[in-house]
Specification:
This protein is α+β, with helices and mostly antiparallel strands and about 260 residues long. The chain folds into two domains: about 5-70, Multidrug-efflux Transporter Regulator, Chain: A, Domain 2, CATH 1.10.1660; about 115-260, Alpha-Beta Barrel (Multidrug-efflux Transporter 1 Regulator Bmrr, Chain A), CATH 3.20.80. It is built from nine helices and eight strands. The strands form two sheets. The chain has a six-stranded antiparallel barrel with strand order 3-5-4-7-8-6. It has a two-stranded antiparallel ribbon with strand order 1-2. The longest helix is centred in the middle third of the chain and has 42 residues, at about 75-115. The protein starts with a helix and ends with a strand. The mean pLDDT is about 90.
Length: about 260
Amino acid sequence: MYTIGQIAEILGISKDKLRYYEEKEIIKPVQNGCNHYRQYDSDDIDNALAIEYYRSLDLDFKTIRKLHMDSDTASIKNILNEKYEAVVTEIARMSHIAKRIAEAKQHLLDIEKNLNCYSLRSMAPVEILGQLSDFRAYEEFKTIHNNREILEDEPIFKSLKRLITFDEEGIQSGSMLVTKAVEDGRAAGARKLVQYDRCVYTILEDKSQDDHLLEHHFLKSQSWMKDNHYKPQGTAIIGMLSVGHSEGRLRTYLEVYIPVE
């Protein structure tokens, strides 16, 4: 027979962990009638080693206790199949999050490089799922929620893009588009696809969510396009690239695409 200290040393685990195994009724030491100390035998050691094995497969103690009570190869296989599917699903979820984090990091680099600077680039295709009259038209957000299956877990901030029409006198109209990025360049079903091969591109910082910022930007952008001999088509697509905070207020970074001829 062995004491709890001896078992802990043999297995290389703490006494608290052994007591936890006892609470889960997976190992069951006997109590010495004279000194009331716990006493463990080789079966307890074997069961503790089995726990270590099952925990290496990330099985919870409820499952381990079930296996400890009664299990054959078929039942173990069923449990491991369920665990495998859960792990594969979680790996896919975490891989998706890792990809999104990498994209967010790249967006920060883009902000540092392109903030208030103008360049020429194409706009990747997006499909239009619906339209809102304005970003603050919260009663119309049901359009977003109705497309949640298509949007999957895309944040609302990222799924909305502002469509603006303008002329030499300034901004004439605006609305919000509910969009989803399209990787293969094709929209599903009859949904509309929007993409532009040549756009004047810039990134703006907006600390106040004020439309006057856009008016000021379009005056600057028109001047830049005129100086560089680009003719705008009269529309602009504005999407949220990243967010931060300044003195407790939301700070957004907006990427602007202005299609040109």
